[in-house]
Design brief:
Number of strands: 11
Shape: elongated
Helix content: 55-70%
Number of helices: 14
Distance between the termini: 25 Å
Length: 396
């Protein structure tokens, strides 16, 4: 019975090709929209998550504005932070712009940064040649520095800068390393691109001594075990509260993992909203299927009456019409999946993000189309099965 019902359903669909195509057009558009939206959103989420991770998970960022009586964190406070359990290290974010002198040649608008040796432990790939800042440099406030390729080109030309000396604020610093050129598509690296003529990094302790900085207002804290970030945050809050005499709004702590979690939640909400909007097209497509099936029942009233008179059971007639509705819906769903994936690839290329295939989106699109076929095909199939054979034969 099922095989015969399937044959008759396919025959009726192929016998009305244009009407069948127009009927499933709403399903195609709805499934295509759902597939494309979910896939593009998931691809964008993967891309944004990767960019956030490049900023550094397992890291806390502290902004310590301080109070009128105490501006920023002192070296004693920094030592206390480093002693917190599960803290791997820290690096203050110190920066200013000034000129650098090499053999009487002045290079203006150079960004001078103060980082700790812990920063280079996390950013080992940032060194192209030479060595990074070492713990001994931080402890002894050594006058050593690293420069980037822009400053090397502006000040040294074809001369190897490593081992050369430059004047910063009237003091001699020895260049011990050359920074690698950052990737232009990396968010973290782009944030580091400062200064018209390049950048120069010195130990944070040297920076504080040379430029008379008594308090650090921005600080990155590196955590050994990211799963214990909350513990470190609580200990850090207790330390900062005591340091700033429990003054409100004297500091803030940014947890990159929490920020990433909030971002993922927002992306999920946006995806669900867009899928809900796209589902309206599926609803319209379902109404189209119901309309076609009702028309088909009216057109085939005589056929239904004749089949019933020959002994066909109402159930077999209902199965045939319901199967026809499901086939139409699944056919639209299949075409919608193919078009949706194609649109996703195109949009990913336009948005310059990596395409990420989403099996869940395909399953959702096919499941929605199947549900539409069953739900909107049930009433016409029920109507066909309930036709009185005598009344149906009178219409012949």
């Amino acid at each position: 019975m099922l095989k015969e019902s399937l044959r008759m359903s396919v025959s009726n669909i192929l016998g009305n090709k244009m009407r069948s195509f127009l009927t499933i057009l709403g399903i195609i558009i709805g499934v295509m929209a759902i597939i494309a939206l979910i896939t593009v959103m998931e691809s964008a989420t993967v891309e944004v998550t990767a960019q956030f991770e490049s900023l550094g998970t397992g890291k806390l960022t502290v902004q310590a504005t301080g109070t009128p009586l105490k501006r920023g964190l002192s070296e004693t406070d920094l030592s206390a932070i480093a002693a917190i359990d599960n803290v791997e290290g820290f690096s203050p974010t110190l920066s200013s712009t000034m000129h650098v002198v090499y053999q009487g040649q002045v290079v203006e608008d150079v960004t001078i940064k103060g980082y700790s040796h812990d920063y280079f432990r996390r950013q080992s790939e940032s060194i192209a040649r030479g060595r990074p800042i070492l713990p001994a440099d931080s402890e002894s406030r050594s006058r050593v520095c690293l420069i980037d390729s822009d400053l090397a080109a502006a000040a040294f030309g074809g001369v190897d800068p490593i081992g050369q000396q430059v004047l910063i604020n009237g003091m001699r610093f020895t260049i011990v390393g050359l920074l690698a050129k950052p990737k232009v598509d990396d968010v973290f690296s782009q944030m580091q691109l400062m200064g018209e003529n390049g950048s120069l990094i010195i130990p944070h302790s040297t920076y504080m001594r040379v430029f008379g900085v008594s308090g650090v207002t921005s600080l990155e804290i590196y955590i050994k075990d990211p799963d214990r970030t909350d513990e470190v945050t609580e200990a850090l809050e207790a330390l900062l509260d005591a340091a700033f005499n429990y003054k409100d709004d004297s500091y803030s702590i940014l947890n990159m993992e929490s920020l990433l979690s909030v971002m993922n939640t927002m992306m999920d909400l946006m995806t669900n909203l867009l899928v809900g909007i796209a589902s309206i097209a599926l609803l319209v497509g379902g109404i189209g299927i119901m309309n076609m099936m009702l028309v088909s029942v009216t057109e085939r009233t005589a056929e239904i009456g004749l089949r019933k008179a020959l002994g066909a059971r109402p159930r077999s007639i209902q199965v045939q019409f319901l199967m026809e509705s499901v086939i139409l819906s699944l056919l639209g769903g299949a075409v919608g999946v193919v078009l949706g994936e194609a649109v996703s690839v195109i949009l990913s290329n336009v948005m310059n993000i990596a395409f990420a295939f989403s099996p869940g989106a395909v399953a959702l699109g096919v499941g929605f189309s199947l549900a539409v076929g069953v739900i909107f095909g049930w009433a016409p199939a029920r109507k066909a099965s309930n036709l009185n054979p005598i009344d149906a034969l009178r219409s012949m």
